[in-house]
């Protein structure tokens, strides 16, 4: 995997670049739809490519490990073939899901034992076997196992957690460098920078990760309960530490305005369940603000869902029809809303790239953030 920065904004540290993988080229900044179990909920792969314009999607190591299991995925020749997706894939390490189990897991220096949410069976994730699992999955970009502390963790817990994450990272990098891909295409490995909301811990985490000279770097443990201002501050803390010639991936973030603010602070890659999860609940993101399609005010709104929207669903269906589908509990409603939101997120990233190339991102971002947060 190679990364090339091609433009930098004049009024911020935003940049746009090109990420080259064996499964295709990715233009950054990029939003990656979340396909937890090998599918982006409610959206066909055809529509992800042709309508949404997804360049890369995510799979979740924890969920794929438990179901369908590594024997099935390896038998299929990897996740790309199993789910019929021929573009790049990224897998997280499963660490966030494991640690969110709380009462059903136990953390040690060796790794983390946990009970399956499906059948209660016991499993262990270590820095080494998480690399092995992701080799079997075959993702173009793999993530290191880390502990994700809560956003309100006290300093002592956050420091102890970071020490563990750094120890695990060293072991994960070693395993990655000792092993080879299984399916004939390259796989990159990203450390995850933790440290909660404490600048000195974040800085130390970034320095430790940068010294390992990996293909890219992720920033984790944000948007987990801390104030949004602290999230932005932590991005600013690690920005000058992480290598400028490598991609930066902000994990699990966020709203459209969060994405623009983070791009202005040097972030290249994003993922989040928000466009599909909120879409399934009737929330639509648009360039003019947020719509709750369940509101009665849309019952006789026969204009298109979003006349300026990039997806065919935006001009094919009306707000009134989409509201009807939600009120009637018809599954097509959440599908349309999810596809609209994903297409909007990808459109927003494309607009950001245009503005960065023109050197006008900073001013455009300020105006867009105001519009995006309006309630319609």
SSE inventory with pairings:
Elements (H helix, E strand, L loop, with lengths): L1 E7 L6 E7 L2 E5 L1 E3 L12 H8 L4 E4 H6 L3 H7 L2 H5 L5 E4 L2 H6 L4 E3 L4 E4 L6 E4 L1 H11 L3 E3 L11 H24 L9 E3 L1 E2 L5 H12 L6 E3 L8 H11 L9 E3 L5 H8 L5 E3 L2 H7 L2 E4 L2 E4 L19 H5 L2 H9 L4 H27 L2 H12 L4
Parallel strand pairs: 4-15, 5-6, 6-10, 10-11, 12-13, 13-14, 14-15
Antiparallel strand pairs: 1-2, 2-3, 7-8, 8-9, 16-17
Helix pairs in contact: 1-14, 6-7, 7-8, 8-9, 10-15, 11-14, 13-14, 14-15
Question: What do you see in this structure?
Answer:
With 376 residues, this protein is of the alpha/beta class. It has a domain at 30-275: Queuine tRNA-ribosyltransferase-like (TIM Barrel), CATH 3.20.20. Helices cover 42% and strands 18% of the residues. The protein is built from 15 helices and 17 strands. The protein has helices spanning 45-52, 61-66, 70-76, 79-83, 95-100, 127-137, 155-178, 199-210, 228-238, 256-263, 274-280, 312-316, 319-327, 332-358, 361-372; strands at 2-8, 15-21, 24-28, 30-32, 57-60, 89-92, 105-107, 112-115, 122-125, 141-143, 188-190, 192-193, 217-219, 248-250, 269-271, 283-286, 289-292. A five-stranded parallel sheet has the order 4-15-14-13-12. Strands 5-6-10-11 form a four-stranded parallel sheet. Helix 6 crosses helix 7 and helix 11 (274-280) runs antiparallel to helix 14. It is globular.
């Amino acid at each position: 995997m190679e990364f090339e920065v091609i433009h930098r904004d004049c009024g911020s540290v935003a940049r746009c670049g090109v990420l080259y993988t064996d499964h295709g080229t990715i233009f950054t900044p990029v939003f990656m739809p979340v396909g937890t179990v090998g599918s982006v909920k409610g959206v066909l792969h055809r529509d992800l490519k042709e309508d949404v314009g997804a360049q890369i999607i995510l799979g979740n190591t924890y969920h794929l490990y438990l179901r369908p299991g590594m024997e099935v995925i390896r038998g299929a020749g990897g996740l790309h073939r199993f789910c019929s997706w021929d573009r790049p894939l990224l897998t997280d390490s499963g660490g966030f899901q494991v640690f969110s189990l709380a009462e059903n897991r136990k953390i040690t220096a060796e790794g983390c034992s946990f009970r399956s949410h499906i059948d209660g069976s016991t499993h262990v994730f270590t820095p080494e076997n998480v690399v092995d699992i992701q080799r079997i999955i075959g993702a173009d970009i793999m993530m290191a196992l880390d502990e994700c502390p809560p956003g309100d963790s006290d300093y002592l817990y956050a420091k102890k957690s970071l020490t563990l994450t750094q120890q695990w990272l060293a072991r994960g990098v070693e395993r990655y460098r000792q092993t080879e891909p299984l399916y004939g295409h390259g796989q990159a490995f990203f450390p995850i920078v933790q440290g909660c909301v404490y600048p000195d811990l974040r800085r130390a985490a970034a320095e430790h990760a940068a010294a390992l000279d990996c293909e890219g770097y992720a920033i984790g443990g944000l948007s987990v309960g801390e104030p949004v201002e602290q999230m932005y501050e932590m991005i600013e803390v690690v920005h000058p530490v992480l290598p400028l010639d490598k991609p930066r991936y902000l994990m699990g973030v966020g709203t459209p305005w969060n994405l623009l603010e983070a791009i202005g602070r040097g972030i290249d890659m994003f993922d989040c369940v928000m466009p599909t999860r909120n879409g399934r609940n009737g929330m639509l993101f648009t360039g003019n603000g947020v719509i709750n399609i369940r509101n009665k005010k849309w019952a006789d709104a026969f204009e298109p869902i979003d006349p300026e929207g990039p997806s065919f669903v935006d001009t094919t269906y009306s707000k009134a029809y989409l509201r009807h589908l939600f009120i009637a509990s018809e599954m097509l409603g959440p599908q349309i809303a999810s596809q609209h939101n994903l297409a909007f997120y990808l459109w927003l990233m494309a607009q950001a790239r245009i503005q960065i190339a023109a050197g006008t991102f900073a001013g455009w971002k300020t105006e867009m953030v105001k519009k995006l947060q309006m309630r319609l």
